[in-house]
């Protein structure tokens, strides 16, 4: 396989992975927002997801 074909295949995989990442991040963001609306604290969400409370608040504001 030529180096250009290898690069193109890698680029195609990166595009697909990025699209999946965006979809999964949106799913996580919606779940965080729903959990907060259900009364789960930002501190608990942060602890369970390995995030900071500030990250949780930022995600919820943007979602």
């Amino acid at each position: 396989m030529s180096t250009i074909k290898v690069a193109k295949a890698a680029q195609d995989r990166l595009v697909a992975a990025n699209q999946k990442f965006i979809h999964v991040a949106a799913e996580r963001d919606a779940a965080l927002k729903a959990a907060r609306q259900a009364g789960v604290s930002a501190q608990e969400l942060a602890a369970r997801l390995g995030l900071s409370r500030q990250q949780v608040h930022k995600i919820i504001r943007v979602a």
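Helices lie at 3-37, 42-49, 53-62. The two ends are 43 Å apart (CA to CA).
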